[in-house]
Every structure is written in C-alpha cells, then in structure tokens.
Amino acid sequence: MGEPANKRIFCLSLGCSKNAVDSERIVANLNDAGFLMVSEAASADIVIVNTCGFIRSAVEENIAAILDIIELKNRRNLEKVGVIGCLVARYGEELKRELPEVDFWAGCEDITSILKSLGAISGISSRRSLAPGRSPYVRYLKISEGCNMACSFCAIPSIKGPLLSRPIADLTHEAEVLAEAGAAEICLVAQDLSSYGTDKGARLLIPLLDALESSLPSDIWIRLLYLQPSGVDRALLERVAGGRQVLPYLDMPVQHASPRILGLMNRGGGDIVSIFETARAIRPDFALRTTCMVGFPGETRADFASLLRFVDRVRFDRMGAFEFSPEEGTAAAGLPGQVSKRTKKSRLERLMSLQAEISLSRQSAFVGRELEVLVDVTNGDGSAEGRSFREAPEVDGVIDLTSSEITFRVGEKVRATITEAFEHDLSARVDAKTAVPA
User: Fold this and answer.
1) What is the pLDDT of residues 213-231, one digit of tens each?
2) For residue range 257-273, what is the model confidence (pLDDT) as tens digits?
3) Pairing relation of β-strands 138-142 and 46-51?
4) What is the pTM assigned to this prediction?
5) Does domain 138-364 have CATH number 3.30.310.50?
6) Domain 8-117, what fold?
7) Which of 318, 404, 413, 419 lies at a 20 to 30 A Cα distance from 338?
8) Do the beta carbons of residue 257 and residue 306 sit within 8 Å?
9) Domain residues of the chain, as ranges?
C-alpha cells in the first residue's frame, strides 16, 4: 500500500448505465487500494469524473461538469482531479491541451492507469462496489463491450472498439454476486445485446438467459436493454415472453422506419414492423421501448411521414426521440441534405405528440389490472414509488403506490392494483392481502 491510504475520493459517473458498471469496478479497486469513497465532491480530496462522449449534447454537459469540478479544485484546493472514460477516448489530446488543471487522464476501463496516477499499489480486481448512495436493489450487468455495427451517425465503434463478448460463466458469477449483495432486478446492458456472442461465432443471448435463470434466485428480475432489431428473431421473443424471471420488456432502438433513411444510416431496410407485431402476437402486453431520430440528412416529408405511420402502427409503450446532430468523425456528418434546426424541432414535436397519445392509451389498458411492483422509493407520508415489468429504471415512468394496510420497504415487491393512468406514470393501490411476502 502506498501513499493513498485514507484519501477520500468522489467518483462522478456520467452517461449511460454501462458507464455506471465501469464506475463500480473503479470504486471497488480504489477501495482495495485503501481509498475512502465519499458521496459528494465537496468532502473529497480527489475527484474522478467518468465521462460520456456519445453525442454533442453529452460532450457539452460532460465538459461543463468537468469545469465545475475544476472550479471546486480552485476554491477548495482539491489534491487531484482525474477525467476518464469515453470523452477521453474520443477527444483526449484536445482535452489535455484545453484543460491543464486536470491532473490525470485515462481511457475506458483503464483501471491500471487510474491506480498508477494515484500512486496506488494494488492488483486489478473485477469486483464491483456501489458508490455511496446508489441503490443495491437495481444493478446492471454489462455482457459485452464495443460494437461491430457501423451506423453512419454513431461514434461508439471508434470510441469503444469492436464487439468483445464476456464469457457466460463470468457473467453468471457476477450476477450471483450482485444477487448476494441485494439485487432485486438485474438489467443486462451492452451496445447491442442481440449481438452477444457473434464475435465468438454464434448468437448466445438465449443460452446466457438460460444460465442466468438457472443460477439466480427465482425472485430476481432480469431485464434486457438495448437490442438492435436486426438481431431479434421469433425464438428470442418467445424466450423473453416465456421466461421465468426474464421480463417481457425489450428496448429496441429503430432510429427510423423509412427504408431509404435506414439505408443511409447503414442500418439496412428490412421489415422491422414484423418484429414488433410478432412480439405483441406472442404476448399482447409485451412492453416495447424504442428510440427514433428525426432530421437525418436527406430526410424528406415523405420519409418523416413513414416514421409517423410506423409509430402509429406499432404503438410502442415508450419511446425516446432526438434530433440528428452531426457527430465529428462519423460518415453522416458530411452527408448532403442537412435538415434545418427549425424543421428538426418541428418534426420532433410532432413525433412526441403522437407518442404521448399512444403512451396514454397503452397505459390506460392496465387500469384495473394487478401488477407485481418493485418498490424503489418510500415517501414520508407512507406512499411509495415503484416499477413493474413495463418500466425500466431511470428511463421510463413510475407507479405511485398507496396503501392503508402495509408499510412499504425499498427493494421489496408488492402486488398493486392500477387505479389511474397518465402519459408516463401510473397510480396503484396495495392491499395487505396482495402484498408479496418478504
């Protein structure tokens, strides 16, 4: 053990849930090296910022966060500030020139460099520790790194590199550790879950789900996030819909519906409608989330109209949407036919207005039904907030819970009768007789 013993570190994790997994591994290694993790920058000696560099808005937000930490360093004389992660992988040399106040830099998952920069002497562990203040009940399991797709608008392959799938045995062991630490829900994440195993010669997501259900306690939920539609077939849909613990929820970003635009995006132009219709044919309440992009270069009124028709036909439970931004280093940044900001804004508003109507309709269909709900937050007035199979953590709505008969506890599951529906959230009542035993 070197100099770092008892130094206080705050790790600020920005961006997606995959970054959160990396931050947990970093925190565990820092703990092993003798550092004390704290829950706020103001009480730290050292601050590490784990960054996201996916799109321009994220880059701007991350740089603003780094500048805030540098300002804190100047006011409080922080010993060190470190910046790590995707932003460094994408803009490292430029950032080093522009931000000399940062004491050390490291790329994605480069724990060795972080420890060396802090003067620590410790072996590298794959163990994960929660940062102070994070819930142990919802955990993320990153099953692969990198991406082999070459979407023309996306910088991730240049940041993360090619697909690298983790062994099933390693993943089941890590999931067991998360369960022992209190996880009630484990979310599988990757750049594309449906490609898991293809770098080894076969799609292995279904065998992974089989292994996880065999190894985990039967009351733990397994949720799938981020699948490319091109890698989803009927066998996977049936496996997800009929799983003992796997939730009937899929997050499949389509980005667009126009075959011409999908071709320009380098995402192919197959029959994506059939994937979602098959899912709903297998199980009518299959929860479907997607992400769409408006204003891609060359998008015409007809292209946008096809996207509206597609969304109206599929009727997603949830949808995120964003305006195209020309990301530096991507093929799409230089395409002709860039759409004006005004048009992109107008199209985004129309798309989200349509989705709001669809979302409320899908929500309303659950009024009167009983759902199993995982309690995430308890309120001082005896009420609580939770989620069912239809709501992924952090990105979807919540279910507001009330009961005159039970006391809610975070991390437990209850059976709740839905009483009212809103565009994003639901309200529900829990009776003592429907509460799931602890």
Assistant:
1) 999 999 999 999 999 988 9
2) 999 999 999 987 668 89
3) unpaired
4) 0.90
5) no
6) Rossmann fold (3.40.50)
7) 318
8) yes
9) 8-117, 138-364, 370-434
